[in-house]
Design goal:
The protein is α/β, with parallel strands linked by helices and about 400 residues long. The protein has one domain (about 90-390): TIM Barrel (Alpha-Beta Barrel). The protein is built from 12 helices and 14 strands. Catalyzes an early step in the biosynthesis of tetrapyrroles. Binds two molecules of 5-aminolevulinate per subunit, each at a distinct site, and catalyzes their condensation to form porphobilinogen.
C-alpha cells in the first residue's frame, strides 16, 4: 500500500483521477491532488464502499490475519467454473444394454427405467436416443433362454447366438459406435457361475479360460471393438490376447475387469439377466471387498498380459481402488457404476430423500475425479442429456 502523498501512476480514464498531459513527470499525480480535484467537482468521486450488513448479534471482531483465503476462488460461478479441476462429457460414458430374444421390451423391476430390450427393435431405438445426446459407446449383456444354458456354457461362442447377431445388427445400423462385450460364462451357464464348475463345487480356472477365448474370438468376428472379460480367472488376459491375435484381431481391445469385487451391489443386475449362482457365491474368483493391495497384483498381471483398459467394479464405494489404479498405471481406467448404485439413487429420488438428478451427476463426477477415464453407467443417456442442456429437470 502506498503512503499518503506518494505519487501514483495514471494510465487511463476511469481510474478515479483526471489525467495530466503525458510525460514522465507530468503524468504522475498525488493522492492529495486527486482529492482536491474531486472536491472542486472536476470529476465525480467514487461512491463510498457499502458493505452488506451482518445479522444482528454477529460479533464485531478484527479480521483474521490470513494471507491465503481459498474461498476467494469460490466466490462466483465464473470463478468456480474457471478453476474446476475435473470435467465430464457424454464421451466418458458407456451405456450397458440388456438384450433378449423377445420382440418386446421387458421392464426390470429392481432397476426403474431399465429394460431387457428386444434385440431387433427396442435396442436400436435405445442406441439411437443415446447417440442423439452424444453417447457412442455401449456394452451388451444378454438374457439367455434357459434351454440354451449348459454346465460348460457352449452357447457363449455360438457365432449365431444373441450377442454376435446383435453386434452385426448394430454395426450395420451404426457403424461408428463402439461396442464393448462381456466375456464370461455366467449368462450361459446352467450353474450361474462365471466359469465351469467341477462336481465338488470348485470353479475350474484354465478350462474356463479356454472357453472364454472362443467366446472373445466369436465376438470379435461379429465386429466387437472391445472385449471385456469380467470372469476374474487367472491368466485370461494373456490367453485372450493370444487367441485374438492368432485369428487376426490385433485391433480388438481388451478391457479387463481388473479389480472386480465380490460385492453385494450386484443384486439388481443378476435379476436383469437371471444369472444368480445356483449354489454358493463368487468369492473364490472375485476379490474380497476388504482388500486394497491385492488390486495392485491384478493390475500388474493385466498390464503384463496385454490389457488395454483396466476396470474397477463397483464404482462409488471403491473410489480408493480407482485412484490406486490411476496412480499406478498409465493405461485408461474404467469404472462400473453398478446396478445397486443406480437403484439406490433411483429409490432415494423416488422417495424424495435426495434430488435424483443432482446426486446422479455428483456421483459420476466423483468417479471421474477419482481417476476414471470412462464410466459404465445406466445413467448414461440421462446424464448426457443433462450435460447437453436438454435433460429432465
Amino acid at each position: 500500500m502506498l503512503p499518503l502523498g506518494a505519487a501514483l501512476p495514471y494510465q487511463e480514464l476511469g481510474q478515479g483521477c483526471a489525467p495530466r498531459p503525458s510525460g514522465s513527470a507530468a503524468s504522475r499525480r498525488t493522492i492529495e491532488e486527486c482529492e482536491a480535484d474531486a472536491v472542486a467537482g472536476k470529476f465525480p468521486a467514487p461512491p463510498p464502499l457499502v458493505r452488506p450488513k451482518a445479522p444482528e448479534g454477529t460479533p464485531e471482531i478484527r479480521p483474521l490475519d490470513m494471507a491465503k483465503r481459498p474461498r476467494r476462488n469460490r466466490k462466483s460461478p465464473a470463478l468456480r467454473a474457471a478453476f474446476q479441476e475435473t470435467s465430464i462429457s457424454p464421451a466418458n460414458f458407456v451405456l450397458p444394454l440388456f438384450i433378449h430374444e423377445g420382440e418386446e421390451d421387458a421392464p426390470i423391476g429392481a432397476m426403474p427405467g431399465c429394460y431387457r430390450l428386444g434385440w431387433r427393435h427396442g435396442l436400436l431405438d435405445e442406441v439411437y436416443k443415446a447417440r442423439d445426446v452424444g453417447v457412442n459407446s455401449f456394452v451388451l449383456f444378454p438374457k439367455v433362454p434357459d434351454a440354451l444354458k449348459s454346465p460348460t456354457g457352449d452357447e457363449a461362442y455360438n457365432d449365431n447366438g444373441l450377442v454376435p447377431r446383435t453386434i452385426r445388427l448394430l454395426k450395420d445400423k451404426f457403424p461408428d459406435i463402439v461396442i464393448y462385450t462381456d466375456v464370461a460364462l455366467d449368462p450361459y451357464s446352467s450353474d450361474g457361475h462365471d466359469g465351469i464348475v467341477r462336481e465338488d463345487g470348485v470353479i475350474m480356472n484354465d478350462e474356463t479360460v479356454y472357453q472364454l477365448c472362443k467366446q472373445a474370438v466369436s465376438q470379435a468376428r461379429a465386429g466387437a471393438d472391445v472385449v471385456s472379460p469380467s470372469d476374474m480367472m487367472d491368466g485370461r488376459i494373456g490367453a485372450l490376447r493370444s487367441a485374438l491375435d492368432a485369428e487376426g484381431f490385433h485391433d480388438v481391445s481388451i478391457m479387463s475387469y481388473t479389480a472386480k469385487y465380490a460385492s453385494s451391489f450386484y443384486g439388481p443386475f443378476r435379476e436383469a439377466l437371471d444369472s444368480n449362482p445356483r449354489f454358493g457365491d463368487k468369492k473364490t474368483y472375485q476379490m474380497n471387498p476388504a482388500n486394497y493391495r491385492e488390486a495392485l497384483i491384478e493390475t500388474a498381471a493385466d498390464e503384463a498380459e496385454g490389457a488395454d483398459i483396466l476396470l474397477v467394479k463397483p464404482g462409488l464405494p471403491y473410489l480408493d481402488i480407482i485412484r490406486l489404479l490411476r496412480d499406478n498405471s498409465a493405461l485408461p481406467i474404467a469404472a462400473y457404476q453398478v446396478s445397486g448404485e443406480y437403484s439406490m439413487i433411483k429409490a432415494a429420488g423416488a422417495l424424495g430423500m435426495v434430488d435424483e438428478q443432482k446426486v446422479m451427476m455428483e456421483s459420476l463426477m466423483c468417479l471421474r475425479r477419482a481417476g476414471a477415464d470412462v464410466i459404465l453407467t445406466y445413467f448414461a443417456r440421462h446424464a448426457a442429456a443433462v450435460l447437453c442442456g436438454i435433460g429432465p429437470k
